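Page 37, continued from 36.
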């Protein structure tokens, strides 16, 4: 009974679709999202931020001071700001941003699942990170 049956190999176009077809579609969707994100990052890289000299020049024109005096003010602001953030953990520049420190806890060594794969992770010590947050008035303007 079992030996009398002959198994035929069907061509690929006549076989039932396997479970791999949805996986391929998902991979292509992920690739599309990644490409979209990369394009957005490239657009952000195209916009250049104002240099210190350009900022000093713009401020000097706005308040009728010499550019060298404004440069000294910017240097003093940077120095005072770094001291204050280190001491108090927080600094607010009115109308612009708030700079805070945040403590990140230490991570243990071990194995973790990342993107469906098991990866060995090294232990990392606790560290302090500096973050800047825009003021509500600035958020409303943009």
């Amino acid at each position: 009974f079992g030996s009398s049956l002959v198994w035929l190999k069907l061509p690929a176009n006549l076989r039932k679709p396997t479970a791999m077809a949805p996986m391929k579609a998902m991979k292509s969707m992920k690739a599309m999202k990644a490409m979209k994100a990369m394009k957005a990052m490239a657009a952000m890289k195209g916009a250049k931020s104002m240099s210190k000299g350009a900022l000093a020049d713009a401020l000097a024109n706005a308040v009728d001071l010499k550019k060298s005096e404004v440069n000294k003010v910017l240097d003093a602001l940077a120095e005072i700001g770094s001291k204050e953030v280190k001491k108090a953990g927080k600094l607010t520049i009115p109308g612009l941003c708030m700079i805070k420190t945040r403590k990140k806890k230490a991570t243990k060594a071990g194995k973790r699942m990342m993107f469906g794969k098991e990866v060995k992770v090294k232990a990392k010590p606790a560290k302090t990170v500096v973050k800047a947050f825009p003021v509500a008035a600035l958020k409303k303007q943009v």
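The beta strands are 90-93, 97-104, 110-114, 117-121, 127-134. Flag for discussion at group meeting. The chain has four helices and five strands.
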